[in-house]
Amino acid sequence: MSKMRKLGALVTSFAVGGTLAACGAGGPGEAGGAITDDKIVLGVITDLSGVYSELAGENAVEAVRMAVEDFQAKHGDDAVTDTIEVISADHQNQPEIANTKAREMYDREGADAIFDVPTSSAALAVAGVAEQNQKLFFDIGAGTTELTGAQCNPYTYHYGYDTYMLAQGTGTTVTEQGSENWYIIYPDYAFGQDMNKSFVNAVEGAGGTVVQSDATPFPNDNFSTFMTKAPGLDPKPDVLGTMQAGGDLVNVVKQYNEFGLREKGIDLAVGLMFETDIASIGVEPLAGTLFTTAWFWNLDDRSREWADKFKERTGSRPTFDHAANYSAATQYLEAVQRAETDDADAVNEELNGLEFDDFFARNATLREGDHNLEHDSYLVEVKQPDEVEEDFDFTKLVETIPAAEAFMPVEDSGCEMG
Amino acid sequence: MITARLLQGGGALRWTLLVVGLVVALALPWFVYPPIATDMIAWALFAVALDLLLGYTGLLSFGHAAFWGSSAYATGLVAIHTGMPFYVAVLAGALVAAALAVPIAYLSVRRTGIYFAMVTLAFAQLIYFVANQWRSVTGGENGLQGIPRNLFGLDLSDGFYFYYAALPVILLGLFAAWRIVHSPFGRVIIAIRENPARARALGYSVDRYKILVFVLSAFLAGVAGGVYAIGHGFASLQEVYWTTSGKVVVMTVLGGMGTLWGAVVGAGIIVQLEDYLATAGIDANGIVTGAIFAITVLLFRKGIWGTVAQLLGRRRRDDRDAEPGPVRPATTTEEHADAR
User: Fold this and answer.
1) Is residue B88 scored above 90 in pLDDT?
2) Which of B326, B106, B144, B309 is nearest to B226 (CA)?
3) Hey, of B36, B135, B236, which one would you mutate to test binding to chain A, going by the most A CBs within 10 A of its CB?
């Protein structure tokens, strides 16, 4: 009898608790001024433990914290709110975890915007949550053009780079500089296939020829078939373009050197590379390699100034992912400041079509049509070992690709903002 | 197993457990973040499905992600392209998983032990590569995005309500597993696990029973995978990756093989742990999960639930022993039943 009563009480308390929780959650974005809960919460979902934890990871969270501190220092008492929190989660490169964490951040922890999210599938999953919850999401770490293409939405911005921009930069510029014949190898999955397609378009658009492009198994240790094949192709390629990433890239570079292709007059161009990759492969085997990047810390004084502050704090130099996280968080906070509210739609009005210029994004526009950040990108070359002055000082500028040419034209993106 | 003991022993404990289980299932989204609660019940059914093979038939499938994942994709495709209620989509997904299981089971059950595990792993990798390459359908590594939660026009976008929409499907799946285990068919598969030669001598077609239980297991894994895909709104390569196969084995072993309840407990713990570690600021979640697994396997050979059940059983036995009455036979048979 008393057991039953206790059970009854328990059930009632659950019911009451549930109702209260449901009330507390509230509806999304009551427009018209004010900051919800009188604070701004920035969420960073990134890879804190896996393969991307070096190039993004904890330092990406730190970059967002830096942006918050600089914003507070700049605005002082005039800031729209005194409390700005940064929360983070490790998605372990699993889209399910990214998706659940994003939901939790928006719903429960009051996050106003989410940043970073490397890994394409995870980024797309978070973009879906952002659209559903009508909260902002700035993807930085993932490269898929789908984010600003078929799966674009009004609450998602792609901030920094994508596969098109990488291919455009390297493919077009290298071809225009006279290396007209390309041999491309790419890993046989979505990223590699996209990169290959973009590279072929870029090279041919610039008047070059892709002599051949070969899909390689993924993952793969042995690229010797492709290395022995390269010099024998007709016409002999001027450049070997590799779209491999991570461990596969290491193998390609090693074997490119073992087979002495550079001596045979075939240069190496890499689709996507970060300073952290160069650090693990080593400067010597990569010296002279061309690739496109969204930014590098040794670009100029403005960049170096920020990179120095970053190093003071974290002990290492930033990758472009870190810089982009800082830049995106800063632009978001400034937009909130101007809108005087953290309501996503009001902030979105400030951001949509925004033209700005900061140490990371030069001549930048947050395009209205597809929410891609258009900004200058850079074709760079890996330095010779004797040119390297300090750790992470790996690259030198070959050519700046103007913002207007660096990214896919809005009309081609296939994005229809709902 | 505990359930077996409960059947012969007092009905009271069994019913208490069942009621407690139901109350926990009903109250879960009030303690746990609702999308996590949905993950828990989906993984619970997946682990129970695996337990049918691992715990009851003695076959370690290391490729069950193939069924969970293929159903996740199939469910997603049906939900996206037909707009039918998600129950139909999940059923379709589970049927695809079961259909896929027929040839895989047919070829795999010819081997046992480590060879069986390797063959199932190989098939699962095959499915993984198909999912990776068949981009126009699966989206490759971008995943199949934008799976809707259709249910007669109800708004299920809140995870809290979706949990209650999904719960009946999972409970039905768990009930099916319980029925399978407690049927004459269930007795036969246990007999096959214990002594396949003897089962064959008694006239049972061992391979055919194995194929059937494999397909049933794949079907239930498919139901779970479908619910999971609808819950997250997408299906990704992660669903068919071998780590998913590994995770479900860990859940089952951690909770206790051959207990059904154990698989549920194991799933709850692993999902909760993974969620907790994502924000705990420890960049070593693999080490933590691994350590817990190693400790459990070393100290509690029967898994968490197996150990709890044993303790509960011992207490009941002590009570009974205190009463005057006929002396019970030696406990060896009891121990034997426990291990089941």
Assistant:
1) yes
2) B144
3) B236
- The answer to whether B303 and B259 have CB atoms below 8 angstroms apart is yes
CB nearest to A90's CB, from B232, B233, B283:
B283
In this structure, the number of other CB atoms found within 10 A of the CB of residue A107 comes to: 21
Q: Which residues of B touch A (CB under 8 A)?
A: 23, 27, 29-30, 33, 35-36, 39, 132-133, 135, 139-143, 145-146, 157, 159-160, 228, 232-234, 236-238, 274-275, 277-279, 281, 283-286
Give the CATH number of the domain where residue B127 resides: 1.10.3470
Task: Indicate yes or no: CB of B234 within 8 angstroms of CB of A125.
Answer: yes
Q: What is the largest CA-CA distance in chain A?
A: 91
pLDDT tens digits along A400-415: 999 998 999 999 888 9
B287 within some domain? no
CB A386 within 8 A of CB A359: no
Q: Are A136 and A112 in contact (CB under 8 A)?
A: yes
Query: Is residue B145, in this structure, part of any structural domain at all?
Result: yes
B287 neighbors B85 (Cβ within 8 angstroms): no
Centroid of chain to Cα A389: 27
* Interchain pair B233, A103: CB under 8 A: no
Tell me if B250 is assigned to some domain: yes
* CA B300 to chain CA centroid, nearest Å: 20
> A191 vs B146: CB contact, 8 Å cut-off?
no
What's the burial of B89, exposed, middle or buried (CB within 10 Å: 0-12/13-18/19+)?
A: buried
Mutate to test the interface with B, among A12, A13, A46, A100 (most CBs of B within 10 A): A100
A48 touches B: beta carbon within 8 Å: yes
Rounded to a whole number, what is the distance in Å from the CA of B166 to chain A's nearest CA? 17
**CA separation for the pair B59, B53 (Å, rounded):** 5
Q: Three-class SS of residue B235?
A: strand
Cis ω before A219 (30° cut-off from 0)? yes
The pLDDT tens digits of the residues spanning A40-87 come to 999 999 988 877 888 888 999 999 999 999 999 999 888 888 899 999
Q: Number of H helices and number of E strands within chain A?
A: 15, 15
Q: CB–CB of B97/B222 below 8 Å?
A: yes
Confirm if A290 and A380 have CB atoms less than 8 A apart: yes
Do the chains contact at B279 and A89, CB–CB below 8 Å? yes
Residue B274 CA to its chain's centroid (Å): 17
**Domain range spanning residue B206?**
2-279+300-339
Structural domains in chain B (count): 1
Contact B31, B338 (CB under 8 A): no
- Ranking A118-132, B151-165, B310-324 by mean pLDDT, the lowest is B310-324
Q: Using a CB–CB cutoff of 8 Å, tell me whether A96 touches chain B.
A: yes
Is the pLDDT assigned to residue B327 strictly greater than 80? no
Q: Is A145 on the interface with B (CB under 8 A)?
A: no
Mutation for A interface: B142, B144, B234, B237, most A CBs within 10 A: B142
Categorize the per-residue pLDDT at B319 as very low, low, confident or very high, splitting at 50, 70 and 90: low
A198 close to A164: Cβ distance less than 8 angstroms? yes
pLDDT band at B333 (very low <50, low <70, confident <90, very high): very low
Confidence grade of residue B315 (pLDDT, cut at 50, 70, 90): low
Asked if B233 lies within 8 A of A87 by C-beta distance, the reply is no
Instruction: Place A25 in a pLDDT band, splitting at 50, 70 and 90.
Output: very low
Residue B75 lies in a domain: yes
Average the pLDDT over each of A1-10, A344-353, B95-104 and give the range with the smallest value. A1-10
Beta bridge partners of A185: A214, A242
pLDDT at B295: 86
Walk me through the domains of chain A, giving residue ranges and CATH numbers.
36-161+299-375 (3.40.50.2300), 164-293+379-405 (3.40.50.2300)
